[in-house]
Amino acid sequence: MDSLADSGLLAAMARGDERAAAMLYDRHGAIVYGLALRIVGEPMDAEEVALEAFTQLWRSASAFDSARGSVLGWLTTITRTRALDAVRARKRRERLSSMALAIDVTATSMGSAPLGADVAVVERERAMSVTSALGLLPEPQRRAIELAFFEGLTHPEVAARLREPLGTVKTRIRLGMNRLRDVLPRMSPEGVR
Amino acid sequence: MTLPSLDALRDLAPAYVMGILTPDELQIFEAGMHDPKTAAELAREVAIQQGALEALAASQSVPAPEALRARLLARIAAEPHGLARPDDTVPALSVKPTPAATHRVARSIGRYPLVTGALATALAASVALSVTLQREVTALRATLASRDEQAATLQARLASRDATVQLLTDAGNDLVVVQLAGTSTTGPALQLYWNVKLGRAVLHASGLTPVSASRAYALWMIKDGTPVPLRLFTPAENGEQLLNDVVLPVSAKGVAAFAVTEEPSGGSPAPTMTPFLVGAVAGR
């Protein structure tokens, strides 16, 4: 089963093969968890997003259509959507909490526990890697991509945030993504299948 | 509909694959995808942008916590297979609602009396709020269930550690420690902590090679010159194994040594190979 392509593993998952799910997790778990962590920011929330993403893939494996894209592409989209939903839900909860609570709670007590040393190191290494890849882009392209990809903002929202013309923002995102596609597979240890 | 230039359509491709096009943009882009003059070029651009998206995601790779894999496997084992949930719909190439879309809805009901519009808006808002809250409740319940699952796992692990410590400390002078080793000093090793008073032992092994599903390691007790099968076990992927419920006699009389062999997963009445780990019971 090791030699099966992602689509073969997904087909096995569609037949109920849990070993295939484990294999797919072994291949892409770090990408899914890392992407979720980048978007939600909290390790525990990122774990939950990663679990939800793979579980959804398990439930929906039979619906996969290779003509519409790769398994990793599908998994990326599911993860990103779930992570952005989690961030939005958390923001809504925080807004509700701040309205409902008259108690003055300090930011420290509301926040999460500090990251452990090992997590902090991994975080720092990941941040360095991404920074170096994105750092190859001109600042306006990098910022526009971060807002669109990691925060899920639309073109008009990115344009408003950056105070740039809409057309300029669209072109910057596309050119930046083209550049990343050329650069990132060479920088990532796993590359892209 | 008059389509914009091919370049302008191409500019929409990244947001298309990210699922963040506004309704108007999506309508334009999909028209371009179906127009014979632009369809092929846009399909190519979408494929390029999908690759870029995957590359960007791959660049975020961070080793996940080790326990996550086991949690996932436990969750999918409990999951009804092949039954997608309503919230499983993936907006891979979908549309994000915007204020502009809301305005269109408002305009469409503008010709009705003001009070009707207000009621419709209020109704729509309450339905949307209800749906949103329902989703959040569902998400919170799932999170809570997951936390409960984690807490139960930790409690079970803690209870197991407590049992191990108690087994060792209760032994007093009746604790027999046996070191099992092979020919290599860097190879696998095993320690057996035998509480003779209770007839129970803690086994700790390290450096073992993982075995296939049809095989297992077997622990033998050499008593009165005969190997007695005690316990089958398979180590974790890291080659470690910790057991705190190995059943042994309440007397060390006649027990000369312990040994480990590799056997079929169903076990064997007698060793089928020369033991690769052997440890003598001190003073026997």
Write up this protein.
The complex is a heterodimer of chains A (193) and B (284). Helices cover 75% and strands 0% of the residues of chain A. Chain A is mainly alpha-helical. Chain A is globular, with a radius of gyration of 19 Å. Chain A starts with 5 loop residues before the first helix and ends in a 6-residue tail after the last helix. Chain B is α+β, with helices and mostly antiparallel strands and 284 residues long. In chain B, the strands form 2 sheets. A 4-stranded antiparallel β-sheet of chain B has the order 1-2-3-6, covered by helices on one side. In chain B, a hairpin with a 2-residue loop joins strand 4 and strand 5. In chain B, helix 1 packs across helix 2 and helix 1 packs across helix 3. Chain B is elongated, with a radius of gyration of 33 Å. Chains A and B meet through helix 2, helix 3, helix 4, helix 6 and helix 7 of A and helix 1, helix 3, helix 4 and helix 6 of B.
